[in-house]
Amino acid sequence: MRTTGWLAARIAAVRPTTSHARVLTLDVPGWPGNDPGQHLDIRLTAEDGYQAERSYSIASSGPGERVELAVDTVPDGEVSPYLVDVAEVGDVLEVKGPLGAYFVWHESDPDPVQLVAGGSGIVPLLAMARAHDRSESPVPFRLLYSVRSPDDALYRDEILDLAGRSLDLTWAYTRAAPEGWPEPVGRLTPDRVAAATWPPARHPLTFICGPTRFVEAAADAMVATGHDPARVRTERFGG
Ligand SMILES: Cc1cc2nc3c(=O)[nH]c(=O)nc-3n(C[C@H](O)[C@H](O)[C@H](O)COP(=O)(O)OP(=O)(O)OC[C@H]3O[C@@H](n4cnc5c(N)ncnc54)[C@H](O)[C@@H]3O)c2cc1C
Predict the structure, then answer these.
(1) Residue 202, number of CB atoms within 10 A of its CB
(2) I want to staple 172 with a disulfide (CB 3.0 to 4.6 A). Which of 142, 146, 210, 214 is the partner?
């Protein structure tokens, strides 16, 4: 889909998805629609003319002029605390997009899909899981979602709902797990990645997204397990 110049985007709705992250629904007249996995740029302009731009993945996909984002607070960040704690329904900001053609799932793709998310990296992967759930695609989808604790998972209820239907889900907890959780709590190891993802013989298309170090560790683990690096697609959020 074609990329637009800067468009006015009115905040139509906001809701918390964790104690530190928020879902924002934007109405964007002229938005051309987007594919699952794409992102956009947001531009904020202060009264004195100072501008800040950041990229955010799009949790929604398809046609229409309504766009859903989810933003997690980066403590001491410039833009994310504003979007999570200050911006209100009716506020207008600017967006440009959709951006990115590589980190995109197409319904016509014939191969199993492996999603690997760390923290807010779930956002573009949820767009893919939602699109898959709505589609006629018979390909199996698997998600490995690493979060600090159950309460830190963005879109937790919706992910559990998808897991009851069209998604094979594995949680990984880095700081605190539910009572009696059978897996160790801590950063993902190559063995745990291998155990919770499709084996190379299934020839999956893998999408990994989250903080830069998480993405690099997960991608290295997939490649070390024998996955073709060309089939392991990554999106780094920074940090
Ligand atoms: C393609 C793309 C898509 C993205 N999609 C999302 C999304 O869907 N949801 C979302 O919440 N964020 C997303 N991000 C991250 C987002 O663009 C910002 O980087 C993030 O919101 C922090 O901005 P800030 O202005 O609050 O922090 P800044 O003022 O830019 O940074 C403050 C400090 O935090 C560090 N930092 C910056 N980004 C991160 C990070 N992601 N994690 C940890 N530390 C960080 C910086 O190095 C700096 O030290 C995406 C980034 C990219 C490149």
Answers:
(1) 13
(2) 146
Residue 239 Cα to ligand 1 middle (Å): 7
**Whole-angstrom distance, CA of residue 108 vs CA of residue 131:** 12
Residue 211 CA to ligand 1 center (angstroms) comes to 8
DSSP state at residue 230:
G
Q: What is the DSSP letter of 62?
A: B
pTM value?
A: 0.97
d(CA 65, CA 48): 30
d(CA 96, CA 102): 17
- Residue with CA nearest ligand 1 atom 28: 77
pLDDT single digits (tens) 182-220: 999 999 999 999 999 999 999 999 999 999 999 999 999
Q: Token digits for 134?
A: 């709505």
